[in-house]
Design goal:
Blueprint (H helix, E strand, L loop, with lengths): L2 H14 L3 H18 L12 H16 L4 H15 L6 H19 L11 H23 L6 E13 L2 E8 L11 E4 L8 E3 L10 E7 L7 H7 L5 E5 L14 E7 L3 H11 L8 E7 L8 H10 L3 E7 L23 E2 L2 H6 L7 E6 L2 H13 L7 E3 L4
Parallel strand pairs: 7-8, 7-11, 8-9, 9-10, 11-12
Antiparallel strand pairs: 1-2, 1-6, 2-5, 3-4, 3-6
Helix pairs in contact: 1-6, 2-3, 2-5, 4-6, 5-6
The structure holds flavin-adenine dinucleotide.
């Protein structure tokens, strides 16, 4: 896309979506335009549209801001198109969304004569080019995948390993062909049409076995239902695998993985898969939690490490001791395993100095990912070699 067009789009969006109210207004105009023209599309969306609207504007801002990085943006839109397959979205829906987006932008600019907001033929052309680019890249992305858009799975086990954390195991038939490290959209029967992403904690296998680690987010809609209301026999729906957390085996760079809480799931799936390979780069896996008792999966990771010398597991807890309400002592590492370190995980990892010679993956909550990147960068690690999932 031409740099002048990009600059025009960027200043237009800066003017339109400069605070939370204007962002909410923008998404409301978009969905009003879409549903007015196509009332049946409303059924594709959840009852409460607030977070959907927020995601819509965040995605538009991300694309406009990063338009100069065409490869990155194409990849993002392709994944978004793949993700939208779960709603049964097709070419005609994309076309309708493009029209609604142009209408929303035009109404936001209004009839103001102020130069910052004025709707001009150049702007009209820039937004038309932009919407055409977005919808065609998403539609092509969606069409590039010929596997089913949705997969059904039956819950075969639900284990509450911590008060606020459950390990849920399912079986799907056929197996979902995901890469270790990817995530999938999940819909549970207790919360219809409320899709959330979860990362399988084991690699895909011919038996269709799946395992998710889910933490209950206080005040959340879906995760408390998964942790407290899931029953064996429940039918879940999963969507197209997404995400690009993976080890690059084409060069011999060693690997640094940093996972906190249930963020260890995609890293665990990868080291499990690597344990089936004959040769691997060295992997340092830092596993974090608030208290020592939050490191719920250490025994499995130690187990893998004991038989795979390329893997070093380093437990990290923010607090040195368990909380007073937790009964039972903290786990002691088996002989030869790294003992537990204390502190915020990013700072603990950065204490070792620069990790400039590693390929790096970080997985956890958005705030953990951001603070860990910050700490690594401050310690001299270049951020262009860090992979993480999107910070939705
Ligand atoms: C790529 C990806 C992979 C993920 N994989 C996993 C996984 O394997 N296991 C897992 O437990 N979760 C995972 N998540 C988070 C998950 O998708 C949900 O966001 C989470 O379960 C909360 O959903 P909810 O419906 O309960 O909360 P919502 O109703 O969506 O949100 C309620 C409130 O909680 C806040 N919130 C949402 N998520 C978090 C969070 N993680 N930490 C702190 N505050 C939060 C929201 O901002 C909001 O204010 C993943 C997220 C992404 C983007």
């Amino acid at each position: 896309m031409d740099p002048t067009v990009i600059a025009r789009l960027q200043s237009s969006l800066d003017a339109l979506a400069d605070d939370d109210d204007s962002r909410a207004h923008f998404s409301a105009l978009f969905y009003t335009a879409l549903f007015a023209e196509h009332p049946l599309y409303r059924s594709l969306f959840p009852a409460g549209m607030e977070s959907q609207g927020h995601r819509f504007v965040t995605a538009i801002e991300f694309v406009v801001k990063n338009l100069p990085q065409q490869r990155r943006i194409r990849k993002f839109l392709t994944q978004l198109g793949l993700d939208h397959r779960r709603y049964g979205v097709e070419r005609e829906h994309y076309r309708a969304a493009g029209v609604a987006m142009r209408r929303a932008v035009k109404s936001m600019h209004g009839t103001s004569a102020h130069s910052r907001y004025k709707w001009t033929p150049e702007l009209e052309e820039a937004w038309s080019e932009f919407t055409e680019f977005v919808v065609s890249t998403m539609a092509e992305g969606a069409e590039s995948d010929t596997t089913p858009a949705l997969w059904g799975g039956t819950v075969v086990s639900h284990e509450r390993v911590l008060d606020d954390l459950a390990i849920v195991r399912l079986e799907t038939d056929p197996p979902i062909p995901y890469g270790a490290g990817q995530y999938v959209g999940v819909q549970v029967p207790q919360r219809p049409r409320m899709w959330r992403y979860y990362s399988p904690a084991i690699p895909t296998n011919p038996f269709g076995q799946l395992e998710f680690h889910v933490r209950k987010v206080s005040g959340g809609w879906v995760s408390p239902a998964i942790v407290t209301e899931t029953n064996v026999g429940d039918q879940w729906v999963m969507s197209t695998p997404l995400g690009g957390l993976e080890v690059d085996f084409t060069h011999d760079r060693d690997v640094l993985m940093i996972g906190s809480g249930t963020g260890i799931a995609p890293l665990r799936a990868q080291v499990m898969e690597m344990s089936q390979r004959a040769q691997n780069p060295r992997v340092h896996l830092f596993v974090g939690g608030r208290y020592p008792c939050d490191l719920y999966d250490l025994e499995t990771l130690w187990h893998i490490s004991l038989s795979n010398p390329w893997l070093t597991v380093v437990p990290v807890s923010e607090e040195a001791e368990n909380p007073w309400w937790h009964s039972g002592p903290a786990l002691e590492p088996p002989f030869g395993m790294h003992s537990r370190l204390t502190g915020p995980i990013g700072r603990v990892v950065a204490r070792f100095g620069s990790w400039a010679d590693r390929q790096i993956q970080i997985s956890g909550s958005p705030s953990m990912i951001k603070t860990t990147i910050y700490a690594l960068r401050a310690g001299g690690t270049p951020i262009d070699q860090i992979l993480h999932d999107p910070l939705y």
